[in-house]
Amino acid sequence: MTLTTLSTLQNYIGGQFVDASPGETLDVVNPGSGEVVARSPISTADDVNAAFEAAKAAFRTWKRTTPGQRQRMLLELADAMETNADELVEAQHRNTGQPRETIRVEEVMTGADHLRFFAGAARVLEGKSAGEYLEDHTSWVRREPIGVVAQVTPWNYPLMMAIWKIAPALAAGNTVVLKPSDTTPESTLVLARLSQGILPDGVLNVVLGNGSTGQAMTEHPVPGLVSITGSVRAGMAVAASAAKNLHRAHLELGGKAPAIVFADADVEATAEGIAGAGYFNAGQDCTAVTRVLVHESIHDKFVDALVAAAEATRTGDAEDPDAYYGPLNNASHFEKVSSVIDALPDHAKVVTGGHRIGEKGFYFAPTVITGVNQVDACVQEETFGPVLTVQTFSTEEEAIELANDVQYALASSVWTSDHGTALRVSRDLDFGAVWINTHILLAAEMPHGGFKMSGYGKDLSSYGLEDYTRIKHVMSAL
């Protein structure tokens, strides 16, 4: 399938690109220019059912493949990603407006690396050793694929999130029906095309659509696991839908990551590190720094350094070689981020940014807000934009209390030169990830996932692979 300007995109089912059922379509818009670049169908329950039937049929043979056979196919797909990097970059750039080099490095190349990790991890799954736990009987544990998996990916890292979903699922022996975000479907479709001739037909299926399509997927009786990366609202809806059929749910949801800056931190280096982690991808990252908690003794000095770092950070069109990040993803999200600034209480002060950049596209300036209180909406609710709030604390205990006092629990960081402080605070922070003197970096070998309203289940690492398996006990009389 060739994607052309204003083409109507197709679903990928059973190893073939097929038209969705006749009906409504959605415009796919480049948020950097505001131009419509493609049209996407709103797939119906019939389309969803066809995808699940294809995945169900493929599972009968895919589950019999050995880890080594699945490894070879995933490694081949990773090679295909790198070989076709330019096509993947352009497809995603049309939908996100992200700088091309960001897509190439952070999603194509890193995505290929993550595929390779799971290709190998499939061969080293562990369980209890076989043994006689009852006299004259030998027991052992089988770790098996769940079956067909339904997956929904977000728009902030379209290709990477597709890899995070399909790599562990396929490596474990499952088959997949995946729905990309309705605003960013094209790089996922290119990935599907690259899988042709590598993966058996029906092992990977891609269905396009909006929330109604996603609901049809999560309520379908076939999938044994439903996995979503998205908002808390979407995650709660998926969990409720999955519960109707007692399906397992795997939820990676929102974040409101704090960065705690102690008095002994290197102010300039810390400010630069936090700005980099807060504004990367326009702050459209659930692990991005959003709340800075700084010791009261260095507040003014730190704010000056953070403002300087923010004002040195450039947003703009992907053709701008100095642009650190691109536009917000869509008009609705741009309005949401703007509304956070509009709704600030009188005691809050925007010391830099807080406004649109340019006259076209959805570019938003790097923003720093001071004077906020813990109960303010801008502190408690996810913004998902290039906006940092700054608060003060006086003691270690107060810093931990403020950091933990939100509904999200995905990511956090501690900035200090004291080893004991770093260990104590990392122990007491109630977040799935704690970075020390850095933030936002991930490794395929380490788990990613949160607590509380940030969801449950892990992406990446052997823990992420295990989430796509089930455990069976087998006992034999001797």
UniProtKB/TrEMBL annotation:
Q: Give one Pfam hit by family name.
A: Aldedh
Gene Ontology terms: biological process: aldehyde metabolic process
Q: For the Aldehyde dehydrogenase domain, which residue ranges apply?
A: 18-474
State which pathway it belongs to. Answer: Aromatic compound metabolism; naphthalene degradation
Instruction: Give the Gene Ontology MF terms in alphabetical order.
Output: salicylaldehyde dehydrogenase (NAD+) activity
Arranged from A to Z, the UniProt key words for this protein are: Aromatic hydrocarbons catabolism, Oxidoreductase
Q: Which CDD domains match?
A: ALDH_ABALDH-YdcW (cd07092)
Q: Which SUPFAM superfamilies match?
A: ALDH-like
InterPro entries of this UniProt entry?
Ald_DH/histidinol_DH, Ald_DH_C, Ald_DH_CS_CYS, Ald_DH_CS_GLU, Ald_DH_N, Aldehyde_DH_dom, Aldehyde_DH_NAD(P), Aminobutyraldehyde_DH
What does UniProt list as catalytic? E252, C286
Say yes or no: keyword Transcription present: no
Task: Give a yes or no for keyword Disulfide bond in this entry.
Answer: no
Q: Which reaction does it catalyse?
A: salicylaldehyde + NAD(+) + H2O = salicylate + NADH + 2 H(+)
Gene3D superfamilies, per this entry? Aldehyde Dehydrogenase, Chain A, domain 1, Aldehyde Dehydrogenase, Chain A, domain 2
State the family named in the UniProt similarity comment for this chain.
Belongs to the aldehyde dehydrogenase family.
Q: What is this protein called?
A: Aldehyde dehydrogenase
Which species is this UniProt entry from? Mycetocola manganoxydans
Taxonomy of origin reads:
Bacteria, Bacillati, Actinomycetota, Actinomycetes, Micrococcales
